[in-house]
Specification:
- This protein has 449 residues and is of the alpha+beta class.
- It has three domains: 161 residues, Beta-Lactamase (2-Layer Sandwich), CATH 3.30.450.20; 90 residues; 137 residues, 2-Layer Sandwich (Heat Shock Protein 90).
- Helix content is 60%, strand content 17%.
- The protein is built from ten helices and eleven strands.
- The strands form two sheets. Strands 1, 2, 3, 4, 5 and 6 form a six-stranded antiparallel sheet that branches.
- A hairpin with a 4-residue loop joins β5 and β6.
- 18% of the residues are buried.
Length: 449
């Protein structure tokens, strides 16, 4: 077996085994979490309902307290209490009931047929002796009892949670209850969601595993070619990162220089204030201080403009490439004394992110090379565009430079130009002879990712 196939096998088999183990663990953990979630939901709802029932019973006890605590035990007082309790209700299915200690129903506002009947031996569908369990809970338990009972609004037997208390002097059991179908519905929904989650997770893991197996197989078959492509891709990303870091560093230096020079401006302000005080006092030294401050202010402004525009022209961010290039050309003409012939036809073209900065830096590098090495008298600059490309041409009548068969030969300035053009998948044309040199850059308006 060839090495590349062994590599593929060694990559796929552990992957399949790992996916199988992960699937088993996911199923077990999700089922466990699902049961825990359902139990938490049930406990939370039941705790809320217990508190609700406790409040209802306390409300009923407070309503009958004046009659019960009056000490009267006659039949009229008891009937008055039963009438008051029968009027108390909450919702469609919320009511109070009363039984004596022998299991006889004394009051039931929703099922009047039960009143007066002995229900001591009544059982629910699960075989629970309901009234006996309620009495036991009221006498010796916590007062809460689960059982099944007919729901008045539907006529169906439904699980119910009751809260009961004893009126010891009369031998009565007073209680109320809440039906629990919403608890069953919530827990069932939680379990169904867990089951759906497990199914979806298995599908996702299967899809990921299938894609991973295919990728491992393809990568193993194309290992040699992919290594070269990966190296080239890493080198390109490194070059892009270097250029991005250069731009970030220049922006940072621009801010720092502004902060530093601002201190100089503050000192100039103090000189102006001192000169104002001297002039107000009628001293001639105030004029000398004012002139020195003015000269220093002019130098600081010129230095700020030069450094700021070299590092990061503000017009490039505010007014765009055309305005920034126009300012760069004008300042270069003033500084160098060369005769500049400049024209631009960009219109309202919107370039991709980074392209305006790249074109500005390319022009900046080209003008720097012309100023330092070309010994030219005239420079021709043209910036134009169409729907697909933007074109920058820089031509001078200097001594020229050497261009080799691969594209060019020169210092770091020309190398930076080439790297910026390659970053945006553009084209660079170089031509040079004594009396005429050309640098023509063409960048696409849209870069394919």
């Amino acid at each position: 077996m060839q090495l590349k196939y062994k590599i593929v096998a060694l990559g796929i088999l552990p992957l399949i085994l790992a996916v199988g183990v992960i699937c088993a663990l996911v199923i077990v953990q999700n089922q466990r979490l699902g049961e825990q979630q359902a139990q938490l939901i049930e406990d939370s709802i039941l705790a809320s309902k217990r508190a609700e029932l406790q409040n209802y019973v306390e409300l009923a006890m407070s309503a009958l307290a004046p009659l019960y605590e009056s000490g009267k035990d006659d039949e009229q007082t008891k009937q008055q209490v039963l009438q008051e309790l029968s009027k108390l209700s909450f919702g469609i299915n919320g009511y109070f009931f009363v039984y004596d200690h022998n299991g006889r129903n004394l009051m039931h506002p929703r099922q009047g047929a039960l009143v007066g009947k002995d229900l001591w031996s009544m059982t629910d569908p699960q075989g629970l002796l309901v009234i006996q369990a309620l009495l036991k809970s009221a006498q010796s338990g916590d007062g809460f009892q689960h059982y099944a009972w007919e729901k008045p609004s539907t006529g169906q037997i439904t699980d119910k949670l009751a809260r009961v208390v004893m009126l010891e002097r009369w031998g009565w059991m007073l209680g109320t209850g809440i039906y629990l179908e919403d608890v069953e519905r919530a827990t069932r929904q939680a379990r169904e969601e867990v089951a759906r989650g497990i199914y979806t997770t298995m599908l996702d893991i299967g899809a990921v595993a299938l894609i991973a197996v295919v990728l491992v197989f393809v990568c193993g078959l194309t290992l040699n070619a992919s290594e070269h492509r990966l190296a080239d891709s890493k080198l390109q990303r490194l070059n892009r990162r270097i250029m991005n870091l250069q731009e970030e560093e220049r922006s940072r230096l621009s801010r720092e220089l502004h902060d530093g020079i601002s201190q100089v401006l503050v000192s100039i302000k103090f000189q102006f204030e001192l000169a104002s005080l001297e002039l107000e006092a009628g001293r001639e030294s105030g004029m000398d201080i004012l002139r020195k401050g003015t000269e220093r202010l002019g130098d600081a402004i010129g230095e700020i403009r030069t450094i700021s525009h070299d590092l990061r022209p503000s017009l490039l961010d505010t007014l765009g490439l055309a305005a920034a290039v126009t300012q760069l050309v004008n300042e270069f003409e003033q500084r160098s004394g060369l005769h500049i012939h400049y024209g631009q036809h960009l219109g309202d073209l919107t370039l991709v992110d980074g392209a305006p900065v790249a074109l500005f830096r390319i022009l900046q590098e080209a003008l720097t090379n012309i100023e330092r090495h070309a010994h030219a008298s005239n420079v021709y600059i043209e910036l134009s565009s169409n729907a697909a490309h933007v074109r920058l041409a820089v031509i001078d009548d200097g001594v020229g430079f050497e261009v080799d068969g691969k594209g060019m030969q020169g210092g770091i300035g020309l190398r930076n130009i080439r790297e910026r053009v390659e970053h945006f998948s553009g084209q660079l044309h170089l031509f040079s002879m004594s009396g005429r040199s050309e640098i023509i850059v063409t960048l696409p308006t849209r870069v394919n990712s």
